[in-house]
Amino acid sequence: MQLAYRIPEMTHRDRFIRKAASQRTVYAVAGEDGLARVASPANPKREVTLLWTNEAEAVRWADVLTENPRVKALAVGELIADVLPRLAGLSRHVGLDWSADPIEVEIEPNELAQRLRQESVESFLQRARLRRGVWTLEDANGPALLVSLKSDTQLMLPCWATRAEAEARIEGPWRDMLAVEIPLDNFVALTLPWVGEQGWLVAPGHAEGAGTVELAPAELIRRFEPDGAKVPA
Fold first, then answer.
1. Could you tell me which of 99, 114, 102, 95 has the C-alpha nearest to residue 46?
2. What span, in angstroms and rounded, lies between the C-alpha atoms of 133 and 226?
3. What is the pLDDT of residues 85-142, one digit of tens each?
4. Of 83, 125, 196, 226, which residue has the fewest beta carbons closer than 10 angstroms?
């Protein structure tokens, strides 16, 4: 069950989620008994684990929250795959960018995971529209593909909104591949329909781990519709 928020709290929550999805990292304070947590102002019997999008804020509050603290960077994929499920299992909430500000937003772990996944796709869409291109990795045999997390009998095409994101994945089995830019119009009108014909999924802004969102190609075309693209008949 999702929590009810006032407008200032919604603004604070959405700002955290946008920044976390964009930088792909959040920060926690780790102590001798795990990630730092406090009693919820709304329900003193419930514990709230604190996360920040600004490392300096985590450092600022570290000594206040626990003994022998260390600030820990958490990749969003790790957060979704490991940390948030464990917090949900402990019936804890998550505090988002708590500071001296009186707005102390807390959110259920499963809701945070869902919103981070959704925002990662929105971030990809916005940046691809802005740059008018999408990047994939390719070699002489075709594009880089991965086995879908949904089914080990299905493949997915990872793609990114920037060259830097794509080139960051050139390692291991992909070490000899090249980052290739596909103009956005061609990606929507030609590449995605072709991916659909192969029976593959597409992973916009692909990152390792459970933070990955896999979509049917037709769904990604639909998400680009405000940019003038239409799903082929």
1. 95
2. 16
3. 999 999 999 999 998 777 789 999 999 999 999 999 999 999 999 999 999 999 999 9
4. 226
d(CA 37, CA 69): 12
Two tokens, residue 120: 């990662």
Residues 36 and 123: their CA atoms lie apart, in Å, by 29
Place of tokens 């948030």: 84
Distance CA 55, CA 139 (A): 38
**Where are the extended beta strands (E) located within 1-109?**
25-31, 34-35, 37-39, 47-51, 70-75, 93-96, 106-107
Q: Which domains does the chain have, with CATH numbers?
A: 7-115 (3.40.1350.90), 132-227 (3.40.1350.90)
Q: Is the pTM of this model over 0.85?
A: no
